[in-house]
UniProtKB/TrEMBL annotation:
The lineage of its organism: Bacteria, Bacillati, Bacillota, Bacilli, Bacillales. GO terms for molecular function: cyclic-di-GMP binding; NAD binding; NADP binding; oxidoreductase activity. Residues 3-162 form the 6-phosphogluconate dehydrogenase NADP-binding domain. Residues 165-282 form the 3-hydroxyisobutyrate dehydrogenase-like NAD-binding domain. Pfam families: NAD_binding_11, NAD_binding_2, PilZ. Residues 310-416 form the PilZ domain. It comes from Paenibacillus sambharensis. This is Tartronate semialdehyde reductase. One of its GO terms (biological process) is organic acid catabolic process. Belongs to the HIBADH-related family. It comes from the Bacteria. InterPro entries: 3-OH-isobutyrate_DH-rel_CS, 6-PGluconate_DH-like_C_sf, 6PGD_dom2, 6PGDH_NADP-bd, HIBADH-like_NADP-bd, NAD(P)-bd_dom_sf, PilZ_domain. Signal peptide: none annotated.
Amino acid sequence: MQTVGFIGLGTMGGPMAENLLRKGYQVTVYNRTPGKSDELLASGANAAQSPLEVARTCELIFTMISNDQAIDEVYYGSEGILNGLQPDTIVVDSSTISPALARRLAADIAEKHADFLDAPVTGSKPAAIDGTLVFMVGGDKEIVRRVEPAFLSMGREVIYMGSSGSGATAKLAHNTIVGINAAGLIEGMAIAAKGGINGDSFLRLVQSGGAASKQADLKGRKILEHDFSVQFSLALMLKDLKLSSVLTDTLGVSTPMLEASKSLFQLGQSAGHGELDLAALAYCYEEWIGRRIGGEEQDSGESQPPQGGERRRKARLSLDIPLMMSVYQWEQEGAFSGQSIVGSLRDLSEGGLQVATTYPLEMDMFVVIHFQNDANLPPITARIIRIEQHDDLFYYGCMLSGIPLYQRQQLEQYIDRKLAEKN
């Protein structure tokens, strides 16, 4: 099998197609964004004008595509693979997609008397360039055996996972671990930085001890040097964690660590770091600790001045932002009574916020806080942990309950906007 099509020539796909060319395969390439195929064409690849053209001319087709919308266009569009697919063609998708989509592609391709494998990879850009990827494959085992030489032209190992969708499931489980490991590495490095530990020394410790990991090897030096050139983007990491969250809901698996890491990467995306390497999550931690992770300034052990919202909290500027609170009281089994009261946000702290109202409430009571529409915030549940009274106003210190980090950032941005309007 020598005629291979490759669709999707981005960070991973381009090097993978290049390795197929080096191994002597006749490769036809297509990419939705013009220009990404130029180097491959110079290396001897043939150009196709559409996925349909690839499907009509190739015995084996690989796709490596960034998101479900692009998958839909490449496979199901008017110029898509399914409209030109020939019998006995083998189609391999190495993207990270949901198991449900992988099974749907397998069924629709089978109707064309062709075969489909879901074969995502582990190993980011350096492994794609070196040809050391690991393929995790779902589908017919005999078809996997037939494609194995092509797999091993781009990678070092092929691991069979089971029937269609199994490769996609394994990939999401694997990338859940990657996301959690990466967030844990950055968090640990932030603790060390805030404590005045030299970044180089701490990374050596991590790589030499029980915290050693592939993420430490791949990302540790990038974090210290602020080299956030893309090996695997933060946006794609978030996409994979979201897919994994949907999958685990379907499977009924409780995943608190997945949800925590997803919130962290969502925060990084909201802060504008999505197109950088996933290690750029370090920017968020640097904002929180008020200093850079890595660099000579850590040797002094002295913390840098706080930044952004932290400065505002230290200064405890006066706030008076209108809000509503819903208060519910238990009457008897299965029955609650409740009412809405007018209040205002007066202060924001590390662990919660302070609200003021003329209405008397009690310690440990839970309230639901509703902000004005321009906040674009959902209702937030809080528990009253402190009460002060001045004149006719009650001031309630409220601990926030389970608010995701990205919503915390939205809340701080909303407060910053209100302060700017006030000034």
